[in-house]
Amino acid sequence: MIVVALSAFAGAEEEADAIQAGCSGCISKPVDTRHFAQQVRDFLERRAFGAASGGSHLEPLSESALLPLRARFLQESAGQAKQWSADLDGDLDAESAAQAVHQWIGAAGLLGYPELSEMARDLAAAFRARPVDTGELRQSLDELLRAVTARLAEQKPEP
Prior knowledge:
This protein is mainly alpha-helical. It is built from 6 helices and 2 strands.
């Protein structure tokens, strides 16, 4: 099992404390989503490498194993973005949407979509802005939806 501590104070001493407490390592906050996916991969690779010396072996996911995860993420993201666009003029729960989009930041990065992660970061900020600027939200949602749709089209096998 891999356990990684998140700390606002992730210096050498805090990392040593985390390791002594049983963690695999430490990542400092605030988390930089542009590098977070690679940090997680590094922990997974170290675990897989260490397994060769007698522990359980953790194989990295193959590209073919990632495809269904990526497709599902993109499809669900597109559907949610369309729903939020439809709700902008009435029944939008901006805080709930901001929380959902916040999860997209890390998921998109881990699945290999850093540009979607960055767009999700901007969208989360737009959802949290007070007062909510529906024009800015509509534009951000449209941009995200175009990007997600383009990524979905890339995944479709050619006939």
